[in-house]
Specification:
The strands form 10 sheets. A 4-stranded antiparallel beta sheet has the order 3-2-1-20. It has a 4-stranded antiparallel beta sheet with strand order 4-5-6-7. Strands 8-9-10-11 form a 4-stranded antiparallel beta sheet, with no helix packed on it. The protein is built from 2 helices and 39 strands. By secondary structure, the chain is mainly beta.
Length: 653
């Protein structure tokens, strides 16, 4: 659904002032962590509206609001359409400015007469003022036929915000030139009349200005119609004479326009982007000196993401969170950041739900701590912090590779609760991945780990070949009350736990690897998970490699907690990818039953779509969907969604 609001953020390619390093927040607020892309979608009037997308790296973007506009153009513009949005963070660090072309292209390329100025203090609600040049400037500019691609920059010398744009009239010999005016204090109008700023001797449009601290110069990037490319000019001050620089900026032979330049988050390079409008994609380049430009990639356009002429701007974590809260495409992923191997648990002690995860995003799966998140509705999750670190003093036998945890709550004889947290980590003594356990009286810790692992290679079933002692799962049999542990990559092993929950009954160790299948169907790879429903034990596991788009979940059933496992070749698939929705690698799950109800959810990770072709196995995010059963007790294949389930209703106190 289209939300009739406008949001945006900050500090743009064109923030560019000598007093600030481009990309910095002027008032010393938190650092920038992502980018916001402001654009419109096509020349169709319904698409000439402002849209937004977010990126963590400045090159790969995910549209907000499911690709729909974040403001209705018919509420702000004379033509009821707008194009070429440009965003700027103000000098006070908390006021934001936007300017857009007031134009409906279906009326012709010489049909627009003005622009729209917008101002916000929260990125959600915006004041707006539309300026029509022929009626605003009735003498010299009554014949204006084009007011294209306005942008804003703060002029420190003048102490005002400068709005610059290309302008053309219907007068003989007129061609597009870049003009400027200063905005009034409220950013609701332009002062004086248009003043010439720059032209290349022929049609000159789509200007974008940044300040480069390295050479103490303003850099003006523009499109020169005669050369059909993007060029550059420099000046010491905004209203000085601009010196043209030889050479093209674009790294393509395609027709281009709408250049935008933005300092990278680390401040070491510049991101240069332009619209390859004839071929339906954006192209991104990188520069370290604004003199030489290196091709990076073309942006994939698909579905509702077909961006045209826009700009990108760095944003803070708080601002990113605000945008996602207001205009997030969907409720998933449910955890912020990269988190894998999610383990979900309901606590009878706190009446809350918890998720424990592998901290992802580190090369070589090198994360060394576990995070815990809490929720009352399965949708909104609070970060409870790092609850165990295997690299420090908390776990004496391990040094890193904190992977795939599980946890169980056990009520003690005195009415209190204990939580047993099982995990895999690297043991430098054996140079193997082994399984440990830590205990706490609270689901969020602090947890105290035992001095030695609970499962090593010595506990490997004789039939098992290869693989590692990882991906642990813990389960209480509701029929016998006994507790069991399951583990294995390349094989599945199971064993009964001793009553202390800190060791296994080695004589009960059993090789449980489901037999048959192949990487495309139900061959066991890793991540066993066990639950019980209506007299049946369900065993779930992951198929194929964690970095594969084909990574998915299958299941079998048994009549006892240690098998044997039977697979119904007509009903074995639990969840798999949905590439048409950019959903890949859906696997390594846990299962949640709502207490007292036959209501079930699957919590799993998927591969972040921007990393499907590069390091997919370490860029995973946690999601949740509802899981159901047919009348025969078969799991109905779960279709992964972008919206997830509805929040659980809270009981009235």
């Amino acid at each position: 659904m289209n939300k009739n609001f406008l949001l945006t953020t900050m500090l743009c390619a064109s923030l560019a002032t000598p007093a600030l390093a481009a990309g910095d927040v002027p008032t010393g607020e938190e650092k920038m962590v992502a980018y916001l892309f402001t654009y419109f979608n096509s020349n169709d009037p319904k698409d000439e509206q402002i849209c937004y997308a977010i990126s963590d790296d400045g090159y790969n973007f995910t549209p907000l609001n499911n690709g729909y506009p974040v403001i209705s153009s018919d509420t702000i513009a004379f033509t009821q359409c707008v194009r070429d949005p440009h965003i700027l963070r103000g000098e006070d660090g908390k006021t934001f400015y936007m300017v857009v072309t007031d134009m409906k292209s279906s009326l012709g390329w010489s049909s627009n007469r003005g622009m729209v100025l917008l101002k916000s203090t929260d990125l959600i609600n915006w004041q707006h003022s539309a300026i029509n040049f022929p009626t605003r400037y009735t003498k010299k500019w009554k014949n204006v036929i084009r007011v294209w691609a306005p942008e804003t920059i703060y002029d420190h010398k003048a102490g005002k915000y400068m709005v610059f744009y290309s302008l053309r009239t219907s007068d003989p010999g007129s061609f597009d030139k870049i003009y400027y005016q200063y905005a009034n204090e409220d950013f609701t109008d332009l002062e004086g009349e248009p003043k010439w700023l720059f032209d290349a001797g022929n049609a000159t449009i789509d200007g974008d200005i940044v300040y480069n601290e390295a050479d103490k110069l303003y850099h003006l990037f523009y499109k020169q119609e005669s050369g059909r490319g993007i060029y550059q000019a420099v000046a010491a001050n905004l209203t000085d004479k601009w010196k043209m620089i030889d050479g093209h900026v674009e790294q393509t032979n395609e027709a281009v326009e709408g250049v935008g330049v933005c300092k990278s988050l680390d401040g070491k390079s510049w991101i240069i982007m332009y619209d390859c409008y004839g071929n339906g994609h954006y192209q991104f380049c990188k520069s370290y000196d604004l003199k030489t430009f290196e091709f990076v990639q073309n942006t994939e356009t698909k579905g509702k993401f077909t961006p045209r002429h826009g700009t990108i701007i760095p944003i803070t974590q708080a601002e990113k969170d605000r945008l996602l809260k207001e205009f997030g495409n969907f409720k998933q992923p449910i955890l912020t950041g990269f988190h894998a191997d999610p383990e979900v648990m309901y606590s009878n002690q706190t009446k809350k739900y918890y998720i424990y995860s592998t901290t992802d995003g580190t090369p070589g799966w090198g994360g060394h701590d576990f995070s815990v998140f809490s929720s009352t509705d399965l949708i909104n999750w609070s970060d409870e912090g790092k609850m165990l670190d295997v690299k420090g003093d908390q776990v004496k036998w391990a040094t890193g590779n904190a992977w795939a945890p599980c946890i169980i709550e056990r009520k003690q004889a005195d009415g209190t609760y204990k939580y047993y947290f099982y995990f895999s980590a690297h043991n430098p003594k054996s140079n193997r991945k082994e399984i440990g356990v830590a205990v706490s009286g609270s689901p969020t810790g602090p947890f105290v780990a035992t001095d030695a692992p609970i499962v090593t290679d010595a506990e490997r079933p004789q039939e098992a070949r290869g693989g590692q002692a990882i991906d642990v799962d813990v389960f209480q049999d509701p029929q016998s009350g006994k507790f069991y542990l399951y583990w294995g990559n390349g094989f599945m092993a199971g064993a009964e736990l001793n009553d202390d929950m800190l060791s296994i009954k080695k004589e009960t160790i059993k090789h449980m690897t489901p037999q048959g299948g192949n990487l495309q169907t139900w061959a066991y790879r890793e991540a066993p998970y066990v639950f019980f429903r209506k007299g049946t034990y369900y065993f779930l596991w992951s198929v194929d490699d964690t970095g594969s788009p084909n990574y998915h979940v299958c299941y079998g059933t048994a009549k006892s907690p240690l098998g044997p496992i039977t697979i119904d070749e007509q009903n074995y698939l639990v969840i798999k990818q949905k590439p048409e929705d950019y959903i890949y690698g859906t696997a390594h799950n846990s299962i949640l039953q709502i207490p007292g109800k036959d209501e079930w959810y699957i919590v799993y990770h998927r591969i972040n779509k921007h990393f499907i072709d590069r390091e997919p196995g370490i860029h995973r995010e946690t999601c949740i969907d509802k899981m159901t059963f047919d009348k025969q007790g078969n799991i109905v294949q779960v279709t992964p969604t972008l919206n997830g389930p509805e929040p659980l209703k809270q009981k009235k106190k």
